[in-house]
Specification:
Elements: E1 7-17, H1 23-33, E2 37-42, E3 48-55, H2 56-66, E4 74-83, E5 92-95
Parallel strand pairs: 2-5
Antiparallel strand pairs: 1-3, 1-4, 2-3
């Protein structure tokens, strides 16, 4: 079990060719494999927004993975911000809105 002090909240904006290449589905699978909760969504400006909570180690692995993405993605930047967890999600999902 994760100690409360080991938990964190990550907010990441991913830039590059990250829409229309399966990026959100790739993030979903990675986040779930790391036992993280949160959401991933496309933004109107062509970026992808990732908000996740869980163990700091799992979130760091997710943040590193965002630089890679699926095969057809071409990531040019990842802006990460850390904060305390807000405990507002029960699972990781894709925001289709």
């Amino acid at each position: 079990m994760t100690e409360p002090s080991d938990r964190a909240h990550l907010r990441a904006v991913v830039r590059g060719r990250v829409q229309g290449v399966g990026f959100r589905w790739w993030v979903l699978e990675l986040a779930r494999s790391l036992d993280l909760v949160g959401r991933v969504s496309n933004r109107r400006d062509g970026t992808v927004l990732v908000m996740a909570e869980g163990s700091r180690a799992g979130l760091e692995e997710l943040a590193d993975g965002l630089w890679v993405g699926p095969r057809h993605a071409a990531v040019t930047g990842v802006e990460v911000k850390w904060s305390t967890p807000r405990d507002r999600w029960r699972r990781f999902s894709i925001d289709h809105g």
